[in-house]
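Fold it.
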Amino acid sequence: MNRVVITGAGVISPVGSGVETFFDNLTQGVCGIGPITRFDTEGYKVKLAGEVKGFDPEAAGIDRAQAKRTDLFAQYAMAAAIQAVEDSGIEGAVAPERFGVYVGSGIGGMQTFVQETEKLLNRGPGRVSPFFVPMMIGNMAAGNIAIRFGAQGPCLPVVTACATSSHAVGEAFHAIKYGLADAIIAGGAEATIIPLAVAGFSNMKALSESEDPNAASLPFDARRGGFVMSEGSGILVLEELEHARARGAKIYAEICGYGNTCDAYHITAPQPEGIGAANAIRLALEEAGYDGEKLYINAHGTGTAMNDKGETLAIKKALGEERARAALISSTKSMTGHMLGAAGGVEAIACAMALKTGIVPPTLHLDQPDPECDLNYVPNRAVKGDPEVAISSSLGFGGHNAVIAMRKL
């Protein structure tokens, strides 16, 4: 079986775009959460989000005509993919039929869906855009990326809510491991900071209602009251190790394990004892051959009461008490907010950079630790932890659990 490495990465996020800027801001504790500017929040209980600031599709490499017929989520995905492909140098270095794209979205083109619905209701069916369907459907980010880079191999958009891009990366890893491709562009994107999405998440009591950006996204803190919705994209280039070495590619880390389970418990709530999440962690670490090396865990860490408590239990179940307490764990959602279907992609990149640099980003604003969340969540300041193995955990509505394991190489 093949070994798989990360040779490129791209990020569009509330804490900056580009891998170096993104990770520098994470390690410096920069918070990307602020007042919603996309619409008037009068009458909304939720006032904050993690918005991508200053995004310019043309500056990101997307021509004006394509941008006009592409939903924002797919623009974010394309922009991050362009970064990742340029970073890797993979374009032209892999046979088209051995080059794939696994890029998903938890929700897809919701902004387009709402805009075109308003046209239909207010102006009639003749005003609905002929690009409505290809702009709205969730697979179009992957399709457009494949077209842009001539990737004629496996193309698999994944939709598993907040676990979407971790599943995409994990499935891409297995596709290369088992010989189905030599390189795959993998990750996810989301762009749903719009009135309907904010109202929907707010009315199900999932979102923080804090109006203080420094007291809104509070993973593992006793004051936590829900997650902060955010947006963006995280894309990686995965490549078979010998293929990467043969062309002298830069390598961030080796992906070596993947866990995929379901709670089979509830449509939104996690299983309280963390059984499904623990099994996903075990599967990923078993495939990775983990044997107690220094471990960094980028936790799902949403800042909801049930998630953070259940995830703490899951880590203990999967690792055992001693190894769980020795692990360095953080939630970068404390800075980025929850990027939904894009979260796993950007958090996998944070893991790869932690392995490459030895620096573990913090859980920001963790000032009042919950006694039931009693592991080392790296409060407030990055540490030089020099981890040898890292895992990224993503847990989605519907009970979907995805865990990616990687090693320093």
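The two ends are 18 Å apart (CA to CA).
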